[in-house]
Specification:
single chain, alpha/beta, Metallo-beta-lactamase, Chain A, Rossmann fold, 2 domains, 7-stranded mixed beta sheet, 6-stranded mixed beta sheet, globular
Length: 358
């Protein structure tokens, strides 16, 4: 296998172009940070999840969808100023050139290619190379250095077929028509993908939304994502909810909010449901292994396909992917950036509260 291992004599060293710091990756040449974990003057944001997109920056460059989602979550004054980056368009920031490419993670998610003096570094943000009807598909970008996430960077994590997980859900709905099925899912990306996958099967009944899901899900619809008929849970009576599917923040599965449903079946859609102990800890009756991150096979295939000679690994199981890369003759290192993790541990709410009365 051939990699781009022969750096041109005039090329910059990678650390001269992007410098890893405890609070994110900094480009001194361009005067910006990528997904900084603290407020900075200029931030380039890959996607709208709260561990990557934080308020308080002086200026933010991101896709239109990411800017819109940040505005929905944090208010109009989430940054001093904003600029839209169109996928495929190259922008100049200082002495660096930036190009955004689809990451396939959630609506508006992007990889950021940074180029200067013959060196190209791609920061993946979060990504997946599995099909998703709710966002643009992952685009492979050849580069010299690839900064990859590793949320599911262990061989045990192989996500399998999301359609098969949805089939399990609908089978349970058919077997227990008197019970409501409550699907815990992160409010940005996962919830909308689950709904779209359900609709793909021909399921036409209304799907119900917890209040914390409404704003972002309706935004997806405004952007042309067909999710069928959606109804708020609030106002629905118990008889109406029998046999229904409802989407809610994962924390709500153990909340008094569930008492409004007839004999609810707690479900959770996450790559972490591959680990049965996690499902048991959360009291999940029907785990659904559906992830918006690349699994082990996706990570290793992408690393190889970029033909990069150097791999930087961030948030997740860094050591395993670093070891895998080095065993194949690549230069590899963990970044150890504090603050990245599984998106929205607060379930998509800025304060961790679900926002609905029991």
């Amino acid at each position: 296998m051939t990699y781009l291992c022969a750096m041109r004599p005039t090329a910059m060293r990678p650390e001269e172009l992007l410098t890893p710091t405890p609070s994110g990756v900094c480009c001194q040449t361009g005067g910006f940070h990528i997904d900084p974990t603290r407020p900075v003057d200029k931030a380039v944001i890959t996607h709208g999840h709260s561990d990557h997109a934080r308020p308080g920056h002086g200026a933010v460059l991101a896709t239109q969808e990411t800017l819109d989602l940040m505005r929905l979550r944090y208010g109009d004054n989430f940054a001093g100023s904003t600029q839209v980056a169109k996928p495929g368009e190259t922008l100049a920031l200082g002495g660096a050139k930036l190009t955004f490419h689809p990451a396939g993670h959630v609506l508006g998610s992007a990889q950021v290619a940074v180029e200067c003096r013959g060196l190209t570094i791609v920061a993946s943000g979060d990504y997946k190379n599995a099909a998703d009807p709710t966002c643009a598909p992952f685009e492979l970008v050849p580069c010299d250095v690839f900064i990859t996430e590793a949320t599911f960077g262990l061989p045990v994590f192989r996500h399998g077929n999301a359609d098969g997980e949805i089939a399990k859900l609908l089978h349970s709905v058919a077997v227990f028509p008197e019970r409501a099925h409550l699907v815990g899912a992160y409010s940005l990306g996962k919830a909308q993908r689950v709904i779209a996958l359900i609709r793909k099967t021909g399921y036409e009944r209304p799907i119900y939304l917890h209040g914390a899901m409404e704003k972002i899900t309706y935004y997806y619809q405004e952007r042309g994502v067909d999710l069928g008929e959606l109804r708020p849970v609030r106002g629905a009576d118990k008889a109406e909810l029998a046999g229904a599917i409802a989407l809610c923040p994962p924390s709500s599965l153990q909340d008094v909010w569930t008492r409004r449903f007839p004999d609810p079946v707690p479900c959770f859609a996450s790559g972490w449901m591959r680990v049965r102990a996690r499902a048991r800890q959360r009291g999940v009756e029907l785990p659904l292994v559906i992830s918006d991150h690349a699994d082990w096979d996706g990570l290793t295939a992408t690393v190889a396909a970029t033909r990069a000679s150097e791999i930087w690994v961030t948030h997740g199981q860094e050591d395993a992917l670093v070891h895998w890369s080095k065993a194949r003759g690549l230069k590899a290192r963990p970044l150890d950036i504090v603050g990245y993790g599984d998106e929205d541990e607060n379930d998509g709410t800025t304060d961790g509260k679900t926002g609905e009365a029991p």
